[in-house]
Amino acid sequence: MRNLPLVAFLMVAAIQIGICSEDGHYSQKEPSRDGTGKVYMGREISQVVSQHAIGWLERRDREGEEKPSLVIDQLEVEKDDVLADIGAGSGYFSFLLAPLVPGGKVVAVDIQQEMLDFIESKKKLKKVSNIETHLGTIEDTRLPADTVDLAIMVDAYHEFSHPREMLSSIVEGLKPGGRVVFLEYRGEDPSVPIKPLHKMTVKQVRAEAEAVGLEFIEVRDFLPIQHFILFRKPTTTKQ
Ligand SMILES: C[S@@+](CC[C@H](N)C(=O)[O-])C[C@H]1O[C@@H](n2cnc3c(N)ncnc32)[C@H](O)[C@@H]1O
Q1: The domain that contains 79 carries what CATH number?
Q2: Residue nearest to atom 12 of ligand 1 (CA)
Q3: What is the reported pTM?
């Protein structure tokens, strides 16, 4: 190809001025408030909520505001299932999930060791033995392949800095037929009192999940301010 040096020059220039990233899935723009400036499939990725927000994640009125107990009734899990709470934070959901799987376990995955330390102290306090804390990286859950029955991400996915790599890694960790739940504040609804980059639309979640081969099952809108969006890992891989 005669124009190869020109193409290579333009690509390097594009990367340098932030039009596209090296792997082609991401681009960069001027960060908006609470944003990273990194764009994936038209969506700006939000900043990560730090361990200083543990008090907010554990707030007393969370049940009243978000009705997390209703989510538990919708999960349809078996007593010996392995559940993965990805982006577990302080473990608010991990502790709601643990009683569902007395013969199985909840793997609480996060990239902040301080979050996992908080979960460990809460486990001791509450005498809970079936939650396992697990340190992932920004692009890899580091879960063993084909081991998870259900992965859930609560108010977390929109802040993953490498959403495509994270979803691929989640798919790898799921058993064939295993399910993924996205719980995200409703991006279509301006009355949901959450900063825009911390919300997601169903259309956006579907596009990003289907891009890594997850099969859409359904949206269940029974929560006051969040979507419950369900997907499945195919039982057979497409050739
Ligand atoms: C807003 S908090 C939500 C915590 C929890 N799910 C809840 O609802 O209480 C999001 C969490 O995702 C974590 N996180 C961000 N990127 C991650 C990644 N690539 N893998 C795992 N966790 C991640 C952050 O460290 C943070 O603890």
Answers
A1: 3.40.50.150
A2: 87
A3: 0.91
